[in-house]
Specification:
about 675 residues; alpha+beta; six-stranded mixed beta sheet; 19 strands
Length: about 675
Amino acid sequence: MARNEEQLSNFSLGSEGCKCTDQSAVLASLTKRSCLISEGHNGVMLTVEGPCVPSSYGSYGCLRHDLINDPKCQMADSPDYCPDTWCFVDAESCMRSSERVHRSKHFPRDLGVDLFYSHSTCKMSVADEWIDYDRHNPLEGVSILALVPGPTIYEPFHYKRKSTIDEYYNNSVPFEGATINFFNSLVDLADGDFSIAYTHGSKAANNLYPTNSYTAAIQDVADGVIVVDLAVGPFWVTGERLKMTAFTVPIDIDRIVLVIPNPGTNDSIGEQVAKVIEPFTVGVWIMVIVIVTLTGLLSVWFSEEGYKRRLGQAKRPNRRTKRFYSRLALDEFLQKGTFFCSAGVEQDAGASLPYKLLMFGFAFFILIVVSSYVANLAAFLTRSKNDYVGTMEAVVASGQRICAVSALKVELEVRWEKASFIFDQPDLHLLDLYDSGKCSVLALGEFDMGTNFDLVDKLCERDLVSTNSILVENAIAFPVNPDLASALSYWIHNGEKYNGISHQHSLDNYYSVHQRQPSCDVKFSAHEHENSEFAQIGVQHLFLPIMFFLGFAVLAIVLQLFYWWELRSGTPRPLVGRASSLGVQGQMNKDSEDQLTPTTKVSANVTAKGPISSEDAVQLDNFHDNCIEQSAELSIGGDGATSRLQVLVETGALDEFFACFQDMKRRKQS
C-alpha cells in the first residue's frame, strides 16, 4: 500500500492538449469482463482470461499502472514495460497535439468501448518497451480452443486414427495431420504467447450444413459454441463465409479448375495425313504455289523464241498455239515443282542469263523454305493431337453440366451465369454425382488435387484429368474469432516469412514421413495447349527468301526485256544470250585445232558479212536446242552445219558454237 501511495503522490495529468482522462466508469460497465480483485472489490479482466485489475486501471493521471496492477509486473523477471507511466486520453484532443496515441488492445471495440492511451503525454517520449512487448506478445498468453471439422476424415490435413463418428466426438483421442502439426509449430514459435487445444464441432452445425462440414465449422466459430475461437483446416474464403466470421491471413490461393474425362489421342489416317501440311500455314502453301507457278511462266517467257520456232515448224501452227503454250506452262510448272520438292535446281550451262538469274533466286528460296519445312516437320509428325472440350467457355457453349461444391455456389453462378451447375447434396458428393451421370465434367480445386492423394486416386480410377481452365480463385485461410484474427495472423505471417514454418511445409513433411504418392498424374495442362515446338511457320517468317527470289526474278525480267529489244534492233549480244562466251575462247581454239575437220576449220575463218536478220537471230538463240542434230551433221562435214557455224562466227556468238562443239565432241567419244 505504501508503494501505491508513493506512485500516486508523484503523478501528473499529462501535457497540455492531451490530458489524462478518467475511464473507470467505462471499465466498470464491462460486465462481460467483470471480476473480483484480491480486496474483494469489483474489477475488470485485462484479457479474456485475466488478470483482474481495478476499474481505475489507466485513470487518475500518469501512473505506472501495469507495475501497480498487473501480476506479471510483480515477478522478478517482469517485462521491461512495467515501470512506464501512461494513462487513458481523449484521442480527438490529442490528435491536435504532438503526442502519440494508441488504441487499447485490452478492451476492443466489440465490447462496446473505444479506449485510447498515451505514453508520450506522461513525458515518455517513446514507449519502446511496451510497443516491443506488444508486438511480440499480441495474444498475451491466451488459450485458444480450435475446432477440427468432421466427422469425415480429411487426410492429410486432420484426422483421427479410427474413422468412426464416436471417435471424432471423443476429445481424449488426439487429432493428427499436417494442419495440426502446423499450429503446434506456431505455438512453439510463439513461446507462450498462446496455447491451443483441439475439439470437435457441434452436431447441430453439421445438421445445418450436411453437405459441407467446413461450413458447419465456420458456423460454430461464428456462434461461439463452447467458446470455440478457431477452426483448423484448408477453408475457402468466400463472400458468404466472410459474413459469418473473420479469417486469418491467407495461407494459399486455390484455383478451381475444370476436370474432364481424359480425351486420349487421335491417331486416325486422316490426322496423320494432315500432319504433313501442318508445319506451314495456308498462306505459306499458297505462296509456294504462286512462286513455283511464277517461276514456270517466266521460264517459258525466257525461252519463248525457241518455242516459237518449233511451233512454226509444226503444221497449222495457229491452231496449235493455245494447246502448245498450255502444255508448255504445265511442263514448266511440274519441272519447277519437282525442283522445289527435291530441294534443288537443274543446272543448264546453255541457258540464258535471265534464266540463270531466275533459277539462282528460286534456288535460294527453295533452300530456306525446304529447310524450314523439314526442321518443323519432325515435331508435327510425332505429335499426338487431342480433340476435346477442355475450357469452361467450350463447356458452357456445348451445354454440358458441371458438378461443383455447394460452398462455391454463389461465386460460380455469378461468374458463369450461363453455365449449368449441379451442386453436391447430403447423400451425393461430387464423384457420386459424376458416377450417376448427373454431370460430364467437374469443378475441383488445385489445392485439393495437389494435397489430397485419396481424391487424386479416385480421379485416376475414373480416368479424369484437370485442365488449366479456371472457374474461380479463392484464398485459403482459417476462420477465427475477430478478437484474435490480427494477432494470430501475425504469428502465421512471422512463422512463414522469418522461421520457415508454413502450412505447405507441414504438408511436405507429412508426405515425406508417410511416403504417400498419388497413383497417377491428373494434370492435363502439359498436353492442353501447343507450345512453340509446334508453332506453324508463317509468311512473315520467310520474308528474306521471298524478297531474294523476287529481286532476282525482277532482274531476270529486265534482262530478258533488254535482250528482246536487242533482237528486234538486230544487234544481239552474247552476254545476255543463252550462255556467256567469256573465258572459253582459249579452250575453243585448242579443241578446234585437235578436233575440227577441214571443213569446220575453213568455216571458222569466214569473215563477218554484216548484221544478221531477226529471223537468223531467232535461230541463233535456239541453235543449242537442236545441237545434237547439228553435231551429227558437223561430224560428217555436212553443209548445213557449216552454214550454221558460219553464221555463229559471223555474229561473234562463240558461246553457242562452243556449246554445240562440246556436244559433238561427247557424241564422238561415245
